[in-house]
Amino acid sequence: MYRILTCVFSPHVYNEIHNGFLEAGCEVRNILIGEKYINKFDSLKTVLTSAIDEFKPDFVYSYGWWKDIIDINVFFDVIKKKGLFHVWWSADDPVCCGQVSLPAARRADLVFTPVDYLIPEYDKFGIKAYLQPNACAPRYVKLPPKPEYRNDIIFVGNNYSFRHVDEESKKSIFYKFRVDGIYQIIKPLADKEKNLKVWGRWWTDYDRAYILPTAYYGGILPVEEIPYAYSSAKIALGIQQVATSKTYVSTRTFEALGCRAFHITQYSPGVEYYFKKGVHLEWSNSVEETLELVDYYLAHENEREKIALNGQREVDEKHRLVHRARTVLDTVANHI
To answer: Which stretches make up the Spore protein YkvP/CgeB glycosyl transferase-like domain (predicted)?
Structure first.
């Protein structure tokens, strides 16, 4: 089996694919490349070179938000100089394909994307891309409930609804579909003063499209506590980022289901493609439907638990990181 060096940028939010490779029987060394490497090219070169020389990987697998953290060409140059096969996962597709994914994909030997319709788009640039959707990491399993997380309703995730200027189009934009989800899934429950708790970054920041009332904000939840939160609440909410792909589903949806949480999420084509409404989870298309679903399932515990168990089984059978890792390994075997 392969020896794999995995490199993840911006480790505040990452997919833990290295654990999937470990479960698949590979030897893995994982490097987190965060803010400490900003403008420190020599430090990055030293750490990466040392890891390659000591670990002697068969290939490198990298992904994540590298912009404003490192010079991506410096990173790729080290790997190319060592003569290693380099796999890039375009995890920020499709929203940031032009800004983040393409500059890295153009230099990689093999590319994966969570978005089906971008595969032919990559081909136009002479880039061979394959599908790798999001999935559930091994840590996300049903755990004993903790009293501090026994809320009726929770949401775990960051508030990415800031306004930013796209470098290519020069347009000022929001992550519109995600913002729609916040207003459709989270805001109405706060407005109705439900027993709601939200954890994540930037929820009370002034520059967001939606500012959560502080009474419902729980701060930043340590990653090791997230499975306990999912395992303790009656309902775990979800919002989606992509409205246009049948293969893109938020990682948080897979994680919530993996913990046997009863999940209500914003509708998206991806959610409908992978899961069945009322069988594995519930989805909402409107503020009114969100409120109806929440009120109904809070009053029907047996139905909640049955659906939550079905959702967990579906994730365990098809959507764990080990499933994605095996697909990647099979594809790499045909190219390396």
So the answer is: 185-330
